[in-house]
Amino acid sequence: MSKGNPSSKVAGFTAPGMSDKAAQQVIELLDQRMVALIDLQLTLKHIHWNVVGPNFIGVHEMLDPQVETIREMTDTVAERIATLGGVPVGTPKALVERRSWQDYEVGKGLVSEHLTALDKVYNGVNADHRQAIEKLAELDAVSEDILTGQLADLEQFQWFVRAHIESSSGQLKG
Q1: Of 36, 55, 77, 84, which one has the fewest beta carbons inside 10 Å?
Q2: Any idea which GO molecular function terms this record carries (predicted)?
């Protein structure tokens, strides 16, 4: 296992019909998606615990199903990494070391503050999922399909968030 990327391929095998080089590239792409999904589920729980103000309960209750679905997504991605001969590493220190974005900065805050910030989080996660899908199209149809299905749910979750911060003219706050 390499220090720079704890999920580097370590098994002496990968999926039948896939080259070791392609497997390594797929593992690296999936590792970044796994890190992003773990970060997203923790951010959603943080918001769940710290959102206040009008519409608090609606937002509070909207977030838990998102957390559960994203936990399942994370598990699927981690298991795909293992299937390809990689090692999915989800320990806190390893996650922080591999994260390329800033930490979520809103503490206790109003619904509109959190959802405006969460919309930006979804912008990043969803755009990065889409970029990974494009790269996976050349490498691994199975992993591409996994992320494509996930992106449909992630985009719907972002739509739920945006419905709370959208004006009647279709403009987003923030």
Answers
A1: 55
A2: DNA binding; ferric iron binding; oxidoreductase activity, acting on metal ions
Taking alpha carbons only, the member of 132, 45, 38 closest to residue 94 is 38
Contact 73, 153 (CB under 8 A): yes
Token pair belonging to 126: 């969803």
Other beta carbons within 10 angstroms of residue 151's beta carbon come to 17
Give per-residue burial for 32-45: e unless 16+ CB within 10 Å, then b. bbbbbbbbbbbbbe
Look up the CATH number of the domain holding residue 64: 1.20.1260.10
Q: pTM of whole model > 0.70? A: yes
* Tally of domains in the chain: 1
Q: What is the distance between the alpha carbons of residues 87 and 126, in angstroms, rounded to a whole number?
A: 24
Q: Give the confidence band of 2 by pLDDT, cuts at 50, 70, 90.
A: very low
By CB atoms closer than 10 A (0-12, 13-18, 19+), residue 174 is: exposed
Query: What's the CA gap between 147 and 125, in Å, rounded?
Result: 11
Q: Which domain holds residue 69?
A: 20-165
Query: Model confidence over 18-60: pLDDT tens digits?
Result: 999 999 999 999 999 999 999 999 999 999 999 999 889 999 9
